Amino acid sequence: MKLYEALAEELADLMATGVLRPGEKLPSVRQQQERRGVSPSTVFQAYYQLEARGLIESRPRSGYYVAPRRVAAPEPEVSRPDAASTLVDVSELVFQVLEASRAPGNVPFGSAFPSPLLFPLDKLGRAVAASMRHIDPWSTVADLPPGNAELRRQIALRYQLDGVHVSPDDIVITNGALEALNLCLQAVARPGDTVLVESPSFYAALQALERIGLKAVEVATHPRDGIDLDALAVALAQHKPRACWLMTSFQNPLGSLMPPQKKQALVELLALHEVPLIEDDVYGELYFGAQRPALAKRFDSLGIVMHCSSFSKCLAPGFRVGWAAAGRFARQVERLKLTTSLAAAMPSQLALAQYLGQGGYERHLRQLRSALAGQQQRMLAAVAAHFPPGTRVTQPQGGYFLWVVLPEAVDALALHGQALAQGISIAPGPMFSAKRAFRNCIRLNYGHAWDARQEAAVATLGALARAACAAAEAGAVA
Amino acid sequence: MKLYEALAEELADLMATGVLRPGEKLPSVRQQQERRGVSPSTVFQAYYQLEARGLIESRPRSGYYVAPRRVAAPEPEVSRPDAASTLVDVSELVFQVLEASRAPGNVPFGSAFPSPLLFPLDKLGRAVAASMRHIDPWSTVADLPPGNAELRRQIALRYQLDGVHVSPDDIVITNGALEALNLCLQAVARPGDTVLVESPSFYAALQALERIGLKAVEVATHPRDGIDLDALAVALAQHKPRACWLMTSFQNPLGSLMPPQKKQALVELLALHEVPLIEDDVYGELYFGAQRPALAKRFDSLGIVMHCSSFSKCLAPGFRVGWAAAGRFARQVERLKLTTSLAAAMPSQLALAQYLGQGGYERHLRQLRSALAGQQQRMLAAVAAHFPPGTRVTQPQGGYFLWVVLPEAVDALALHGQALAQGISIAPGPMFSAKRAFRNCIRLNYGHAWDARQEAAVATLGALARAACAAAEAGAVA
């Protein structure tokens, strides 16, 4: 961690624990410099970062102040899914919603992606061009699975930074994380088998299960710290699943982050039951804190964790480069890749190997995290200001999704239709459940630059939700 | 067709029908010019093409002569597969062989690809660079299935040239043809279902069936004109398959080409039984004749033909851009693509759209076809010269594979091992059968520039095969 990041984190902690209170003036740059012995630029960078995260505000000719505590809505409760397994049938709804969200011109709160303007597309373009200039013709037919050697080396180096030992030979490059996850699933489960997922769970996981004919068991999940291990233990004993598919950091849609000790306990529990973990970690780099969250794979001594990630959400959307580090299942995943789609696209692989090798990725990530953290604060404040009383909302420590639990009177599918008519896309809760639960919940994307249009869109959503509450109340009275 | 191509084709016909005989002198350029009224350059180009195809030879200060009829081995007989269905289990063997074939330095007769030196990688590199310079950031998240609009338009234009009407909206871009074929299969078949394939059949088709838990029925296939329609009719009635997966032009490994009338009869037969055809057409552009072979899809009035192809074998290996034009199943294939690997890689799609738009593709294809045709002649002659008596071999009208049926005494798997020890890879016959049949057959790749090393490698293979025959004879005598 850099000096300024450490300083920012320290101050953020003071604010979180109430040592520094809303409206209070922060020590001046000169004070920090003299008392702490750090350079002015370190202090400035720390304060800029805190400002970008929405935690402090600068007042002209006065200094920096702790931002007023946004009147955030309270946190949602832990989910209570039905314990029975279900054959999944969520695709039709998901397709309808995705189709609607793609219409250009809509406010993209329902989108699955952050704004593409947040990514270094010009640098990536130059990396593609440079890598194609020096291409070895034979590499075009030799780069079969597991994939480009230099790219796998770069990915292995990043694992090393995260304290995980993964050999480049055990990394299989895939067409995005989605293919990696699908291959891992096929490596361990057969049609009719059961797989444990979070509740709510990422719809693509549900769709993958549906396509392969697998049964999903949704397990209670806390909106802040992830899947409930007690509930998981019960489900493991009861359902004898073939795998567990979890997003351990910044789960989609909850944004929940399992603390390191909980991840360790998770891996130990699964090892006990000999159930592999498919760790979907595509948001792991988008943390707002001082350090990348630990990977569950870090605690994996038996090779049962299949860690899957990609560059699609943090660097290069559209390049479709993901990977699986599938532990003891690496060879099976490699072979499945060969028979499913042969190899990943060579220009994308070469470009990312080139980009990662030349440096600048960390700087890009810092900017991206800071932008997302700031946008989260703005959206949280807007939701608190406009949504009806009784609304609950997550405050994730990373990623770009809020999970909003609305009063029971609000039907998310109806709200989706009404919002769309006003040019706003949202992701309604039933997308995230094999049983179409969460009918009063929505997922909102804060991955786009905050502006008046976004603020107005939240106000519109709030008004629609309030109207639904009022109509329900009138109905109850009459 | 260009004037010189028409002239070359006319002369090739005269040679094929015996009007022009081996060793006979061709009309001089001046004669052609005066009698036919064509320009000298047209005649030269026609003669150059015929020379590249190995059909004529130039003799210094004398002129062009019909090449001596290479003493080609006779054609193999039609396959007689077991009529029962089988659960497929061919992957292990295929992986062993592919792994061995990838070792650099080996003579790549076992390779699945033509030489990468035959492709315009420099132009493609510039196309990648140019397309990335003008990229619309929003396209990186909007180019979800069915894929880049301009690329789909270019592909639809090529269908139009082939007399097939396919709307760009019905084309789904995939990660190579293999993914397209897999998605088409999943759109129509469920685990336990039966699918009809050729015999011998492409091993990736067998692997795909194996992975999805489908049963394969291998149908008798003629090495020259493809699947036997009588045998197919019997299999359709007997097995009630969910799909038929065929390579209608230059089948891998046979190189067989179904004539247009036979393709039409095939589609009519399948329509009668309401069985969809998955038409794997990745070699269709690699024809040596005057015209692209008709597509079975051309005769498809009901939308039951799912035509799959790619640019991997004819333009851009490693770019992993293929597509499916899946007729009435197009929407299902599009959705399966979304849940399997989301989208195809954007840099690859943009580059190919750019390359196809700027022209030059046809010129590249003409050069590629001419190179492959010439290399085929050289390999056919080498096989005839070096392989043991009793050897049969196909003479495909396109593609880059020969199918060699050796005397019964030769075990292709043993030959594979012996050849590898001498730095030569081959593809043994059992790879191409769910039942590991064709144990005395091999597939040879002639997609690489012919040189003394290749000639010597064929001689080595011939010597190994002759030794196996001699050993068997000695054993029979003793």
What would a concise description of this structure say?
The first copy, chain A, is α/β, with parallel strands linked by helices and 478 residues long. The first copy, chain A, is built from 16 helices and 17 strands.
Your description of this structure?
The structure is a homodimer of 478-residue chains. Chain A has 16 helices and 17 strands. By secondary structure, chain A is of the alpha/beta class. The radius of gyration of chain A is 23 Å and the shape is globular. The termini of chain A are far apart. Chains A and B meet through helix 4, helix 5, helix 6, helix 8 and helix 9 of A and helix 4, helix 5, helix 6, helix 8 and helix 9 of B.
Helix and strand content put the structural class of chain A at alpha/beta
Q: What is the CATH homologous superfamily assignment of the largest domain in chain A? A: Type I PLP-dependent aspartate aminotransferase-like (Major domain)
Greatest contact pair? A-B, 61 and 61 residues
Strand content of chain A: 5-15%
**CATH hierarchy class name of the largest domain in chain A:** Alpha Beta
According to CATH, what is the topology of the largest domain in chain A? Aspartate Aminotransferase, domain 2
Overall outline of chain A: globular
> What is the average per-residue confidence, as pLDDT of chain A, rounded to a whole number?
90
